[in-house]
Amino acid sequence: MRKTSGRWLGAIGSVAVVGLGLTACSSGGSDEPASTAQASEGTTTSEIQFWDPYPQYTADSPWQQLVESCAPEGSTISRTSAPQTDLFNQLTTAVKEDNAPDIVMLDNPMMPEAAGSKLLATAEQAGIDTSGIDENLLGPGIVDGTAYGVPFGSNALGLYYNADVLDAAGVDPASVTDWDSLNAAIGKVVASGAKGITFSGIAGEEGVFQFLPWFWGAGADLSDIGSDAAVSAGQLLSDWIAQGWAPRSAATDNQSAAWDLFLTGEYGFVEDGSWYNNDAQKTDFTTGLLPIPAKDGGVAPVATGGEFAVAPIHQADAADHYANAAAVIACLTTGEQGMNTSETLGYLSAKADVRAEQVKANPLWEPWVSSIESAKGRTTDLGADYVTTSAALSEAITGALNANGDADAVRAAFQDAAGS
């Protein structure tokens, strides 16, 4: 992270993006503070249990304070954090023993498995309001036509660029509207003596998350990961490595490592997440942001990121536990507190009205909006079967990146994965 203040350019062109932002403005509703406004809903016990996957947020963090501020009158919130996989395993045990928390936050790809395993109350059962949430962002939480919980917001992937490098190479970022124009821009950057593009191709869900915009942007579908469209996406990235436009380490780099390479100032582009939006302002070079282009133009769908707030199943005192969940979740997703939640977690709100207020408050978020609004849930089409498909797709990506541009090897990697 650089100490000097960076400059920010939001590229607008035929791949133009709409708006985003960060602040704490109310979107209407009760004149009471959000936590008090929800208090009338609480038919609660004195201590509400809240689990999240954010162990990095300590007891003195703004997130802790925000969560605690949403306790209904007469109650307190006890927050527990653990890594996401541990959280899911602990939830499974807790539901069986009927001592689950009132609220838990689950990564959105886990929603079908959690619902299918009978760990979660439905949104209707718990009284959780799903109105006003973008359909595409709510999608991962709809299992067999039934909604479970709500997303707090979403993050997204985009193409950050080093405007100083692009200027020196004679590249207008607004010219990047499809794969051909992106390749032309990277080629010019490399010809100028700079480095081209970096991304995360690490095995596992993180690498799949980064690959899906190219996969979906090629017109591929998760129901057929061996298709010609899927192969073309793998070929694009494999060729970048073969031509020296992307580092060979991309095959094992995580998103943090890819970002660190971009921060050296040597690269023209990096594919990375909106959670680096603030860091991008602190570089000692001018940064900008483009949505990831689809193969033939337009904005490629990115995978929705972020967690769902859900109410676990309870047997004893279920009505009280569900009232707790509904009250706290409403507080954290509505009005000023909803804005605070998005800002604190580095997300764009899942609600258009709150998102619009974010954009007003901080135009730096503006280039991310089109990506959020066109994002797709990883599990929306496949449900719990996504886990198996993702593992196979990860194998295909690894094979393609290690193929060093060899077209036959790239095709074999995807077709073999599709048949596994």
Tally of DSSP helical segments: 18
Give helix % range.
Answer: 40-55%
Strand order of the largest sheet: 1-12-9-11-10
Number of strands: 14
* Low-confidence segments: 1-8, 10-40
Write the layout of secondary structure elements.
Layout: E1 8-10, H1 34-37, E2 47-52, H2 62-69, E3 76-81, H3 84-96, E4 103-107, H4 111-116, H5 123-126, H6 135-138, E5 142-143, E6 146-147, E7 150-151, E8 153-154, E9 157-162, H7 163-169, H8 179-191, E10 195-198, H9 205-217, H10 228-242, H11 255-263, E11 267-273, H12 277-280, E12 287-290, E13 307-310, H13 318-333, H14 335-345, E14 348-349, H15 352-361, H16 369-373, H17 386-402, H18 407-419
Parallel strand pairs: 1-12, 2-3, 2-4, 10-11
Antiparallel strand pairs: 4-13, 5-6, 7-13, 8-14, 9-11, 9-12
Helix pairs in contact: 7-8, 9-10, 9-17, 10-17, 10-18, 13-14, 14-15, 17-18
